[in-house]
């Protein structure tokens, strides 16, 4: 049975966060608002839950989900190496729409898919997302839509696409901006832009200097 909560109502928000955190701990899927688009999330350390997330989206293991964190400390624990620029980028743009691809901590027992030893990390600038992440710890989160369909900018749009594959929907209202996060790969000697997004290349170059792009 799908549960929906209007996070504009303080009582519903509190109940929804409690229910969503419980669902994540049980290996179920939740939909949550972020500072870009709505996300579908699962416990990053429950392989069956991550597999269910990929199934709900219609994706394979070749497209592993990013991991959202509620604190910088959590990001540091998940990454083997942030490279020479990672911490400066975090200080400048987190929480916010910047996803950093790093070498994953090899001591972690998780299975996000075919990651080739990397993890894509982000700390979103959204109070509902941050409140949930502080309860659950790191979550595998991808855009709340079927693969190939437009990203969901409302909880209703997410539910129309994902239906009962999701246990809890947290409705934070329409997204203010549906521009996706910028994705930057820090696993090579020179940072490489993997996706243009909300943070411009010019702003990133203000921190790291040279960035490789496909342009």
Q: What share of residues are in beta strands?
A: 15-25%
Q: How would a crystallographer describe the biggest sheet?
A: 11 strands, mixed
Topology pattern, helix = H, strand = E: EHEEHEHEHEEHEHEEEH
Percent helix range: 25-40%
Supply Rg.
16 Å
Count the strands? 11
State the assembly state of the protein chains.
Answer: single chain
Q: Tell me, what's the shape?
A: globular
Structural class: alpha/beta
Q: Helix tally?
A: 7
Average per-residue pLDDT, rounded, comes to 96
Distance N terminus to C terminus? 47 Å
Low-confidence stretches: none
In words, what does this structure look like?
The protein has 215 residues and is of the alpha/beta class. Helices cover 32% and strands 21% of the residues. Strands 1, 2, 3, 4, 5, 6, 7, 8, 9, 10 and 11 form an eleven-stranded mixed beta sheet that branches. A hairpin with a 6-residue loop joins strand 10 and strand 11. The longest helix is centred in the N-terminal third of the chain and has 16 residues. The radius of gyration is 16 Å and the shape is globular. It starts with a strand and ends in a 7-residue tail after the last helix.
Brief synopsis:
The protein has 215 residues and is an alpha/beta fold. The protein contains seven helices and eleven strands. Strands 1, 2, 3, 4, 5, 6, 7, 8, 9, 10 and 11 form an eleven-stranded mixed β-sheet that branches.
Topology:
Layout: E1 3-6, H1 10-25, E2 30-32, E3 39-43, H2 47-57, E4 67-68, H3 72-78, E5 79-81, H4 86-93, E6 98-104, E7 118-122, H5 127-136, E8 139-143, H6 155-162, E9 168-171, E10 182-185, E11 192-195, H7 201-208
Helix pairs in contact: 1-5
């Amino acid at each position: 049975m799908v549960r929906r909560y209007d996070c504009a109502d303080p009582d519903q928000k509190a109940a929804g966060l409690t229910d969503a955190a419980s669902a994540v701990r049980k290996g179920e899927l939740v939909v949550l608002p972020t500072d870009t688009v709505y996300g579908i999330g699962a416990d990053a350390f429950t392989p069956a839950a991550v597999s269910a997330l990929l199934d709900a989206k219609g994706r394979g293991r070749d497209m592993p989900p990013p991991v959202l964190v509620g604190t910088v400390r959590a990001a540091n624990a998940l990454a083997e190496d942030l490279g020479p620029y990672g911490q400066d980028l975090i200080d400048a743009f987190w929480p916010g729409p910047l996803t950093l691809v790093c070498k994953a901590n090899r001591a972690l027992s998780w299975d996000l898919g075919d990651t080739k030893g990397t993890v894509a990390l982000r700390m979103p600038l959204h109070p509902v997302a941050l409140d949930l992440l502080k309860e659950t710890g790191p979550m595998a989160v991808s855009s709340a839509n079927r693969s190939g369909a437009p990203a969901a900018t409302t909880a209703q749009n997410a539910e129309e696409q994902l239906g009962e594959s999701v246990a809890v929907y947290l409705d934070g209202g329409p997204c203010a901006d549906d521009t996706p996060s910028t994705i930057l790969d820090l696993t090579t000697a020179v940072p490489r832009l993997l996706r243009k997004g909300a943070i411009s290349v010019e702003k990133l170059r203000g921190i790291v200097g040279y960035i490789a792009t496909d342009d």
